[in-house]
Amino acid sequence: MLGSPAFWMTLAIVKFIITTIKVLSIFNRHGKIYAFHIVDDDESEFLFKIGRMSQPLEERKLEWDQQCLSKPHIWYDRIDVNHSHHVEHLVHLELMAHGYKRVIERCPDCGKRHQEIFCLPCTDAWETIIKPLIEKINAEVENGV
Fold first, then answer.
1. Is 20 exposed, middle or buried (0-12, 13-18, 19+ CB in 10 A)?
2. pLDDT at 19
3. Domain span at 80
4. Which of 12, 66, 79, 92 has the fewest CB atoms within 10 Å, measured from its CB?
5. Does residue 101 contact residue 118 with C-beta atoms inside 8 Å?
6. What phi and psi values does residue 21 have, to the nearest 5 degrees?
7. Residue 21 has pLDDT above 60, yes or no
8. Is the Cβ–Cβ distance between 91 and 133 less than 8 Å?
């Protein structure tokens, strides 16, 4: 049994608090946080992948397309951050703490277990949830909050 949603939300909150007080690693470098919407008409919720990258966007798109040829993607603007590993991790934890489900099942198209994919309630989640959250967490990390 994987546990109830309340268990996972509580665990995410605890991990979020622990991660926010961790000292930033010297390996935690500048990068970009990106997101794309996986268009799947068979899903009742909307799937978004949220990750970090240091390479150019076109390289990342090609890399993803080679990994999984399943569904079309709508890519969004990237957000520059100075501590990409830390910010990415905190964004994932906060999404889970707010009860957004992280997809852990194997992809029916390629058989891989993709990381960093979340079920969000609306198609405009980039503007209403993801981007504001990345900006908020990045500002907090930069200000040492």
1. middle
2. 61
3. 5-143
4. 66
5. yes
6. -95, -5
7. no
8. yes
pLDDT at position 18 is: 63
Residues whose CB falls within 8 Å of the CB of residue 18, separated by 6 or more in sequence, listed in order? none
Two tokens at 111?
């058989």
**DSSP string of the chain?**
----HHHHHHHHHHHHHHHHHSPPPTT---EEEEEEEE--TT-SSEEEEEEEESS-HHHHHHHHHHH--SS-EEE---EEESSHHHHHHHHHHHHHHTTPPBP-SPPTTT----SSEEEES-TTHIIIIIHHHHHHHHHHHHHT-
Instruction: Judge whether residue 1 has pLDDT over 50.
Output: no
107 to 52, 110, 135: CA distances (angstroms): 20, 6, 29
CA-wise closest residue to 99 among 114, 119, 126, 125: 119
Total of domains in the chain: 1
The CA distance from 30 to 59, in Å, is: 17
Mean pLDDT calculated for residue range 77-82: 94
